[in-house]
Specification:
Blueprint: E1 2-6, E2 18-23, E3 26-31, H1 35-44, H2 54-64, E4 66-68, H3 73-78, H4 82-95
Length: about 100
């Protein structure tokens, strides 16, 4: 079972906005890295010919969006929920653009 909670701040500013997503007993904190960084993540996720790479995209979600706990592909070798967490991080990021 998974759930999300959104932390709201006094300002309407999106940069740094956080959301907590729970999956398999682990609370993941997502943080919005800003519009420019988000666009760079999307651009850097494309290979030659503009083909989108899930591997590159997920690596960047792990590095720039999922701030706690720090995760990697190796982390998910030992923990459940890889696809669900990546999908939730993607929805969070896309929802703020």
């Amino acid at each position: 079972m998974s759930e999300k909670t959104t932390e709201t701040t006094a300002s309407a500013q999106k940069f740094g906005k956080q959301e907590t997503y729970s999956n398999s007993g682990v609370d993941y904190t997502f943080q919005f890295p800003g519009t420019r960084k988000t666009q760079e993540i999307l651009d850097n996720s494309k290979g030659l010919g503009g083909v989108f790479s899930d591997t590159r995209y997920h690596e960047q979600l792990m590095e720039h969006v999922i701030v706690s706990p720090k995760v990697s592909f190796e982390y998910f070798d030992e923990h459940d929920g890889y696809r669900e967490v990546m999908a939730a991080a993607d929805r969070f990021l896309g929802g703020l653009l």
